[in-house]
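ESCALATION

Customer reports they have been waiting on this structure for their group meeting. Please prioritize. Original submission:
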Amino acid sequence: MAVDLDEPMRDLIDDAIARLKAAGLDERFTSREKWHATLAFLGPVDAARRDSVGAAIAAAAKSCDPFDLTLDVVGAFPDARRPKVVWVGSSSPQTGFAGCAEAVRDQLSGIGFDFEFDAVPHVTVCRLKRSGPLPDVGRLNPRTIHVDSLTLYESAPQGSSTRYAVLGEMPLR
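Update from on-call: job pushed to the front of the queue and completed.
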């Protein structure tokens, strides 16, 4: 379950990747068409559970007000000293995103899904194969999108990559 991105937000992420490459980060970056901000990652879902997942997400979406999401920084999980996943995210709390993610996760928890970590507004740009600290690329020129719907994606292995397919879009209240 995710927030889809508009083209200006994708341009911001392109800029961040260009800065990372210029700073010496030589990795395979996620392609532009795959970028989204995840509210809840479910992992494999059996076909028999898809209807209940869709209903839970639709109910959560109806409980969320539209919100703005601002991205303006490059970061990493678990942290910039020991990065494994590089992302573009927000330097400040995003209360609308957090509230909607909580509503989605509450609904999905009701049908048996568990979430280990709180949702952090971010777009994954690469998974690192090397070790060492994340290069400092400075602050990005902030971009904000207005979110009025949530998108349900299915990810499936495709060779050495992953293919994403949109299964549905749920409007917020």
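Sent to customer with the following note: DSSP finds three helices and nine strands in the chain.
Escalation resolved.
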